[in-house]
Amino acid sequence: MLKRIAAGLLAGAAISASALPVSAQPSPVRWNSGAAVWTTKFSDFNDFLKSKDAYSGERGLSSGLAASGWTAKEVQAGLSKTYNVDVVGVTRYLYSKDGVKFLQDQTRSYFPYWAQKATAVQALRSAIILASVDGKLSSAAIMKNLPVDFRLADTCTTFDGKQNICAKGKCNGEAQCTSLLSWYVFLPACIQANQILDKVTAGRPAAAGAVRGLW
Q1: 184 is a domain residue
Q2: Which 8-state DSSP code applies to residue 111?
């Protein structure tokens, strides 16, 4: 029964993703500051995650790391860390009323490059669900499964380039509590904590708990 439910939920996520204007090679971040745009591809993030010294020569990612409030090593560890999840529980939450509110809150300044807020909830939800299929969720996996290019918008008027960190009280200082990379570090932990599990899966390692972030 659970397998059939999971298949149906995943099909729904796939349909939602297919309804979006999919990019050939979606870029996790197009840093949009005023009229300027710097694109960071997933390959740039992948190179950073594999780097022994947590270094990136890509301009946008390098700037993002400097503004994250964490050391590059901490961001590298945070983006790579995996969390045990149940894809059915994750999907239930993200399609619930609370889950939709969560997704709306979590796309404050980070959303699809072209459609922007119009498809923000659907696009982020699709990426999280698809990244949860194997029972392991990480920030890097969410990035990899984004259906379209995403932008971090700092347009001086409508958007301020800041994100709402989902783990209240777990960040310290302006940068940690508003930067995109810090937001990504905490996102999978919040999903794990909020997934809606039934009695069968509640006893598994994926059971919801306190948000732990990097620790």
Answers
A1: yes
A2: E
pLDDT at 106: 98
Indicate whether 156 pLDDT > 80.
Answer: no
CA-wise closest residue to 195 among 131, 110, 122: 131
Q: Is 207 within the bounds of a domain?
A: no
The CA-based angle 195-202-171, given to 5 degrees, is 40
pLDDT at 26 over 80: yes
Q: Which domain holds residue 72?
A: 2-17+64-109+116-148+162-194
Whether residue 76 is contained in a domain is answered as yes
Residue 169 lies in a domain: yes
Q: What is the DSSP letter of 32?
A: E
> Please, are residues 6 and 125 in contact by the beta-carbon 8 Å criterion?
no
End-to-end Cα, the chain, rounded Å = 35
How many domains is the chain partitioned into structurally?
A: 1
Confidence of residue 81 (pLDDT cuts 50, 70, 90): very high
How much is the average pLDDT of 16-21? 49
Q: Which value, to the nearest 10 degrees, does the dihedral of the CA atoms of residues 36, 42, 47, 52 take?
A: 100
pTM: predicted TM-score of the whole model, two decimal places: 0.84
Count Cβ neighbours within 10 Å for each residue of 14-47 and write b for 16 or more, e otherwise.
Answer: eebbeebeeeeebbbbbbbeeeeebbbbbebbee
Q: What is the pLDDT of residue 189?
A: 98
